[in-house]
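Reminder to self: tokens first, then the designed residues, so the page reads top to bottom the way the pipeline ran.
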């Protein structure tokens, strides 16, 4: 019996659906919360529900850790019990950009518009639909060079800005964007900073965001399968050139899309 148990543990290590634990600011903590034969405990972090999924006979929770989390540890609520998770340090590089003054010095009308759009975008990114999810692994939405990475600490015209909460993938205008994982389109719009944008809900609080599109090819409420084309790469909104800004969110927190993509290449 002991040998069988050890063999099962080995299978968990070689798991195919779950990702490796990458508990850093902007990363994902994978927590084993029990046997899949039993109902899993509810998991919450920072007051928000957390994604749970089955993997190799276990329930796994995937906790998004925000970029502004201090290295050390976080506490996750697993069925009412506090679970401590170590968060390791990660250094993100700095990026200094010069951008059009109209995007730095904003008129009141622009600020009002940005405020309205922020509410719509935040509501979409913070959704949590308690539907089963089989995997969180994603295919790349477009092939192309990753022109800057998640977590960059940005300065626009020497003024500090929020860190970059997505992955930029360089591609020419008109390049089709593939849906990286099945989901529902929950928001589309033409926003001040993000330009033409699509937001997809994959369930369990896993949300993906596509910005600066030249063409939006889907409508709100549409169900998409992995590989479906959701739009085309463009340079709308605040950009210096054509690229796809690809963001991924767990429990309302931006997490590095590279974690979700890298695993799909294994
Ligand atoms: Zn970007």
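Designed residues (266 positions):
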């Amino acid at each position: 019996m002991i040998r069988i148990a050890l063999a099962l543990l080995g299978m968990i290590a070689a798991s195919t659906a779950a990702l490796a634990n990458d508990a850093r600011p902007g990363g994902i903590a994978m927590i084993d919360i029990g046997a899949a034969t039993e109902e899993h405990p509810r998991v919450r972090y920072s007051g928000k529900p957390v994604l749970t999924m089955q993997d190799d006979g276990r329930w796994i929770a995937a906790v998004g850790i925000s970029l502004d989390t201090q290295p050390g540890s976080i506490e996750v609520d697993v069925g009412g019990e506090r679970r401590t998770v170590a968060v390791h340090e990660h250094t993100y590089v700095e990026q200094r950009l010069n951008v059009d003054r109209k995007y730095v010095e904003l008129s009141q009308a622009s600020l009002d518009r940005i405020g309205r759009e922020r509410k719509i975008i935040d509501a979409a990114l913070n959704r949590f639909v308690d539907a089963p999810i089989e995997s969180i692994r994603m295919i790349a939405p477009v092939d192309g060079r990753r022109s800057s990475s998640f977590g960059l600490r940005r300065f626009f015209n020497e003024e500090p800005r929020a860190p970059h909460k997505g992955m930029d993938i360089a591609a020419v205008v008109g390049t089709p964007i593939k849906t990286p994982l099945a989901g529902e389109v929950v928001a589309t719009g033409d926003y001040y900073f993000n330009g033409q944008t699509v937001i997809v809900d994959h369930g369990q609080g896993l949300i993906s965001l596509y910005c600066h599109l030249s063409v939006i090819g889907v409508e709100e409420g549409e169900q998409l399968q992995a590989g479906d084309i959701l739009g085309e790469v463009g340079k709308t909104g605040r950009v210096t050139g054509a690229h796809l800004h690809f963001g991924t969110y767990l429990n309302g927190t931006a997490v590095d899309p590279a974690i979700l993509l890298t695993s799909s290449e294994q």
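Confidence is low (pLDDT under 50) at residues 1-15.
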